[in-house]
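Person: I keep going back and forth on a fold encoding question. Show me how you would write down a chain together with its backbone fold. Please set it down just below, with no commentary around it:
Helper:
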Amino acid sequence: MRNLALFLFLALTPLGWAQPKAAAPEPAAELSVTDAVILGVVEGVTEFLPISSTGHLIIATRLLHLESEKPLVGRDGQPLWYKKKSNKYPEGVPLTLKLAADTYNVVIQFGAIAAVALLYWTPLMSMLRGLFGRDPAGLRLLINILIAFIPAAGIGFLAHDWIDAHLFSVGAVIIAQVAGALLMIYAEFWRRRRAVLTPARTDFADLSPASSAGIGALQCVAMWPGTSRSMTTIVGGYFAGLDPRRAAEFSFLLGFVTLSAATVFKSYKSGAAMIQVFGWSHVLLGAVVAAVTAAVCVKLLVHLLTRHGLMPFAFYRLGLAALLAVVFYL
């Protein structure tokens, strides 16, 4: 637990760098301890399961009434700005509860990242040794991870603002849950049929660059909220010939890199605004809760995938999509 706390402290440091000098001394809006714990649990449980953490967090944010787009004001009655008036933003961009909540949901991913760092410390250190020429297998794994990371990094950087503006809705989540479930069912049948003819790979360090690039291309699809980064990379691992356990573990390691980059980027871009709204304590609480629950769920996912494959998660997604359609649209 001490190592986990140290990792989270170091990981959340970029928020401090981004903190504006004129930030409000007290939170500008209420985020209760219950809200912080619920969001932390949702993040930790869903981040590495193939059911979409972003989709579940969008739903949780809406149910917790944290989606208001009403401009916030400070305790002095003056408006709070996400982007102050400038040549680029003539009208300015006001700070809202929804903007802060969306950023909060990304930043607490640091907890899930910490869980993977602790559970998969050995392959991470192997990649680090490989970088310095002391572990050939670790170097091959590092190259594969970087190849798989590059497509999502490029597209995510370019399309980040458009995705935030157009795809963070319950309707988008429902569509993605159904589409993802159908892809998972197809991939599971494909894997089981292929396993009869060709044994699956058990060493993800031996993936070809083309296979790693294919996994990375599928990861780009997960930018649509509700799709699931974990789902697309596990499916990509299936198509690359990995068995379920190794596909999941490759997904965890790729997620460590992808989520770290995305979370640092979001923290730098919007972290100060989020702290201005919610304060520090609830961010730390959400990240710690996410770390603990993610550690449990990573082990659960490996167990379920080894025994049952992707089918249980596909049926869950279809059931969730039906429930959301009834609750929000009927």
